[in-house]
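Discussion board: Methods & Data

I've been asked by a reviewer to show the raw model output for two of the constructs in my manuscript, not just the figures. I'm not sure how much to include, so I'm pasting the format here to get opinions. Each protein appears as its amino acid sequence followed by a line of discrete structure tokens. Is this the kind of thing reviewers expect to see in a supplement, or should I convert it first? Here is construct A:
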Amino acid sequence: MGKVMTVLGQINSDELKFTDMHDHILIELLPYTQVYKNSFPAIDKKYLTISDENMYYLRKGYFYLSPECMRLDDAELATKELNLFKEAGGKTILECSPTGIRGDIRQIKQISINTGLNIVASAGMYADRFWPQKCQEMRVNELVKHMKSEIDVGIDGTDIKAGQVKIACNSLNDNEKRALQAGAITAFETGLPLQIHTGGWTDVFIDTNDTLKMLDIAFNEGVKPERIITCHMDSFIKEYDIVKIIKDHDNAAKLNLDPIKRILDKGVTIVFDFFGESCNYEAADMLNPTDYDRIYALLRLFDEGYSKQIVLGSDLYIKIYYRHYGGNGYTRVLDYVVPMIRKCGAKESDIENVTVKNPAFLLSC
């Protein structure tokens, strides 16, 4: 039995139970309001505040331009939302917000106390546009020192320690390659899992080949495939471009699992973590796969024997995803996805792998 570091200290891995392997509790993502400003048609700022009337715009993708949406900073509301996760049967949340986007770690610890949930924090670095000034000029060895301090000493001047390493690559530029190298060294030397943010689009589209390059960087630093998690992999299963989907619907609307299988065949674990996403990017002519697409993809991958390399999450990173604002909150995997894949004939062993066994293995050290 392994040990897992939570924000309240070390626990046995068998205490994790049902685990959401990619989510956020308190987070600051304001730079995205600038990253995406040219991806959407111009809009008056008055439509970017959260209100019933403005949901029309925000749910079409304009949430990316809304400072109010791109910040989770209400610990009391987060506690209420996470209590719903607990009531649905959840026990553990892997909080995937590293340096650059992480909210107040002290409040996250208090949320863990108040809800009774296990929360695992992340060391590491988010994409380079989000880096604090002090990190901008850090060399690889200095980034390693920073990450190890969050693991061995504590985060942000506390004694609250991280239980995984998380690196985000939005463009795989030199800074992000340096951070990924440092994260891989840190994961290798500490024994913690390395979760890599990849997939999807910002000012560039990160594809399978880019993800494979990221894996090569991690492998070169000695990290074993079974200790690596690549997130947002459900973004690879279907065409995003609405125009292409409409003009060549029969082909573009088909699910394509080959890109994911190329990554799985490297021996790493993937996360399907967009379950419950209640907005789309229609205003930018982009369309996410639906939860039904994701469930179908999961079942296909189960049938091909990949259930020991998959974990699940909800990636709640914007405020209007909360149940409080009409979103699916943290409960979509528990109250819909698992019952539906069971209804569709998934084996109980496959369900247990992706929700309990795989997380316990990955987070143990």
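Construct B, same format:
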Amino acid sequence: MRRRIVTRRPVVLHHGQAALPPLVDMLTILLFFILKSFSMDTPVRPDDPDFRLPVSTAREYVAKTARIDVTPEAVYLDGERMASSTFYLERDDEIVQELYDRLQGAAPRSANVRADGRVPWRLLRKVVYTTQVAHVETLDLVAVSRAGL
């Protein structure tokens, strides 16, 4: 018996060919997002003379959100000065006591903390911790630019 010599052909890799399965997946995802964002409604243009805001028919008032402003000079609650920033930066207290007392009395469910970029993180951390200890459920942090815009 003779032995047959088996020769294998070398596998030729083409670097210019695209892999079709990932391309099909990407096209499917793209099609999904296009269909998800498609709408037959006409876009709202505020400069349109026929544009009118809807009239509210709600019978209840919207809950007011407490506004806490933190500046390099002071901490304010709804525009009223609560405490000095330098006083609480020099102390080791974790709670801004004046702010805590007012938040406990008003018991807001949510608050917006607005801080300037020049405010040290230590002071901002104390204000956020004070709101958490005062049982404020929702807290939004708002960064104010240095230009005040």
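Answer (T.O., handling editor elsewhere):
This is acceptable in a supplement if you add a one-line summary per construct. For B, something like: Strands lie at 66-70, 74-77, 80-84, 110-116, 138-144.
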